[in-house]
Every structure is written in structure tokens, then in C-alpha cells.
Amino acid sequence: MAADLTTSPVDRQNILNNPEALDSIQEFLGITGMLYDGQYRFTTTQLADFFDVSDRTIKRYVENHLQELEHNGYCVLRGVKLKQFKELFGHLIYQEMDLGSDRDMDVPISKELTDKQKLSKVNKLSLFNFRAFLNLAMILVDSERAKSIRSAILDVVLDLVNQKLGGSVKYINQRDDEYLLAIVKEPKYRKEFTSALSRYLNMGNAKYKFYTDAIYQAIFKEQASEYKELLQLDEKDNARETMYAEVLKLIASFEIGIADEMKEEYDRIGRQLEPTELNALIHRFVTRRHWEPQLEDARVKMASRDYGFRDVVHKKLESYIDSISPNDYQTFLGEQSKSLQEQIDENIEVFKRLKDR
């Protein structure tokens, strides 16, 4: 991964959504904090000291990236929660006050007051959990320590992928247990489509490749050759073996749906369709509104997962790139994720029944 974390919100969120990466990074950095409400927490002053910048700098970054930081665990304690926090960690807040600073308190503190009186004046307190701490390290360009942490983060994430997959992400799609069901059923649906092309379309053998590409373009806007080139597949590689289950299922739905409509049109007109007629039929089929949610879902998942897992950008789907969800990390890289062969070995009898249907 050669991402610039300071400029790419998607790259930042891809790391922050990966629970295994967070555990490994925390272990590597050896950074804890104040354990509160099940998570390690840090005050603004603590992070300013850690990154060797001013409190004002930290607050400026919070203001400029508030939504992102809040999404990743930054919060401001008030009321009952602040009272509970004071009871647990008031001595640490005293220490910050003893440094002659009200930097993290957002209220003026008079030096004539006792520590207890000073503490009572604090009516809100900004806190970062470990995710928000890493988030800040990813965007903080004013700190050499933050720069070092960004480098360490990328190294840890790369090492995790290498440990799990041996560095190869070509078939990471197959670690989804939904993929096995999709690929087992795929030849049946594919045969229905190719049989329909054979029976109902007046065109030479080029029709099979041409209309397979037509379906691919309708779903993810690329021909098979473009897709294989982007993923650096060999000529002998089967492109569908690298596709995610959601994409395979949508391709199957298109293939059997178009096959049925070709038959209906053939029965209606009493002859084979000409290519121009099939083109019009496919256009009507793929532009029906009920496909929109499924097309959106398939494009987002394909574009986002290939970007995050395979470091591949589908230019025609670039606007669909989003961060990978924590659930996807569990599915493809989590402790319970398994290779296709492991899934087959564990479910061999089910696999045989599915294959024989």
C-alpha cells in the first residue's frame, strides 16, 4: 500500500475499519492511555505532548476534521459522564492544571482556586479513543512523530495481508463463504444464457464473447479484457473466479433474465433475433428501475474492495469507491475467514449436492 494517509479519507478509514490492523498497530506502538468505558482514552493535552505540538494545533485539526474524528471515536464529555471521568482520572487532570495550563479544559482557571475547585470548573472535556488517536496521527502533518506512526501503520497493514494471504490478493474474493454457493451455481445460469444465444440470436460464434461483455459493461462498465488487465490476470485465468459473490449473483440474474426475455421475443416474432433487436432488449432490461439498488451495491463493493484489498482502481467505477466496512474485513481477513479449499473440505457433502443439482 503506497497510500498518502494525510490526503485520502478512504485510505484512512480502510485502516481504521480493520479490527485486526488496529490490534496489531496498538501492540506494535505499545500505546495505551486511560481505560474508560472499555477503551483507552487520551486528552487533547496528552496528545499535544505526545506529538510535540500545541493544544491549539490539535484543536485546529479537530475543527477541520470533526465529522471524521467523531466517527472514529473522538468525543466531548459533559454532565454525568464527565463527573464519572473526573472521579476516575481527576488526579491526571490535576497534573495538567499544575503545569499552569487550562489547555484541555475550555474554561479559565484561576490560580487562587484549590485543585478541587479548579476541577469543578471543568464543564467539558475532549477525549480521543485509540481509533481517533490513529486518525489524528494520519492527518497531522505538523508532527514528525505522527509521520513515523503513519509509516508504521502502513508497514503493519502490509504485514498483516502477507501473513494472511501470503501477499497474494488475487483470490481474496473466494474467502467469502457466499462465493462458494455463487460459483457452484454459476455454470448452470451461464449455460442458460449461452443456450439462449445459440437458439434465439442470428449471429456467429462471436456472439458469446460480445454479449458476455455486454452484461459486464451493464454491471461494472468494463469488458472482460479490461477487467483482466486491471487485475493483471493471465489469459488462462477465469475472470469470474476473481469476482465477488454479489457481482456473480447479479451476473447470473442478468443472464437468466435476458435468456428468458430472448425466448419470449423469439416466440412472439417467430424467428431468431437480429443483434440490433437483442441490443434493444438488453437496454430495456438493464435500465429497469428495480435493478438500481443491486447495481449500486455491486459497483460499490467491487470498486471499494478492489481498491482497498487489491490496490486496483476501476476508473469507470471510481466514483463508487468507499471505505471497506468492518464486516468485510471480518469476512475476507478475519480470524474466521477461510480459503475456498478449506470451505470445500469442511462442506464437501453439501458441495457435492449443490454441484449435482
Order of helices and strands: HHEEHHHEHHEHHHHHHHHHHH
Spatial extent as radius of gyration: 28 Å
Query: Roughly what is the average pLDDT, rounded to an integer?
Result: 88
Helix content range of the residues, please? 55-70%
Largest sheet: 4 strands, antiparallel
Question: Total strand count, please?
Answer: 4
Q: Which strand order spans the largest sheet, edge to edge or round the barrel?
A: 1-2-4-3
What distance separates the N and C termini?
42 Å
Please identify the structural class as seen in this structure: mainly alpha
Percentage of β-strand residues: under 5%
Question: Key features?
Answer:
357 residues; 4-stranded antiparallel sheet
